Amino acid sequence: MKRLVLGRLLGLAAGIALLAMGLGCGAVNDIQQATAAGDSFMTALRDSDYAGAYAHSAPALQTELGSADKLKTVVEGGNVHPTKWSYSNRTVSGDQAVLDGDVTFTGDRQGTLHLVAQKSGSDWKVAGMNMKTK
Questions:
Q1: What is the pLDDT of residues 78-94, one digit of tens each?
Q2: Hey, which residues does 53 pair with through a beta bridge?
Q3: Rounded Cα distance, 103 and 28, in Å
Q4: Which CATH number do you get for residue 6?
Q5: What element of type H or E holds 10?
Q6: Is the pTM of this model over 0.85?
Q7: First-to-last CA distance in the chain?
Q8: Which residues pair with 103 in a beta bridge?
Q9: In the predicted model, is pLDDT for residue 22 greater than 80?
Q10: For an engineered disulfide with 89, which of 17, 76, 100, 126 has Cβ 3.0 to 4.6 Å away?
């Protein structure tokens, strides 16, 4: 009887562990995809491809910006043209991800980076950004 109970408990524990691993893999996949979306957006900004960065923006951000030309005005007018970046913190909660880190702007100026990515269907897009010098 004790062996039967022990066997069921071990089976239950193994099932829970597999479920947790499966959920964890989904979260890791979401972090990777959100990070890739952030990198695509930032790469387009770095390359002055404002149409490309606009295309990597979530619909709400596109509405807020209005056009790729307005995004160009925000970046160039704010003197926050990125040349390189890195993320020190990446978190996902449901269909939203936050990517925080450091950014280097033209002229080797250092700054902070805060991106919010949102999942729409199977795609991740940048829904918000904040870049400023330190």
A1: 999 999 999 999 999 99
A2: none
A3: 23
A4: 3.10.450.50
A5: helix 2-46
A6: no
A7: 66
A8: 85, 111
A9: no
A10: 100
52-65 confidence digits (pLDDT tens): 999 999 999 999 99
Interatomic CA distance for residues 45 and 39, integer angstroms: 10
Distance CA 38, CA 42 (A): 6
pLDDT of residue 117 exceeding 70, the answer is yes
From the list 54, 29, 28, 39, the residue with the least C-alpha distance to 99 is 39
Number of domains present in the structure of the chain: 1
* pLDDT greater than 60 at residue 3: no
**CA-to-CA distance for 58 and 87, rounded, in angstroms?**
20
Range of the domain at 67: 2-133
Query: For 26-47, what is each residue's pLDDT tens digit?
Result: 567 999 999 999 999 999 999 9
Mean pLDDT over all residues of the chain?
A: 86
Tokens representing residue 78 in the block: 């704010």
Q: Which backbone phi and psi does 14 adopt, to 5 degrees?
A: -65, -40
| Number of Cβ atoms within 10 Å of the Cβ of 33 | 17
CB 46 within 8 A of CB 56: no
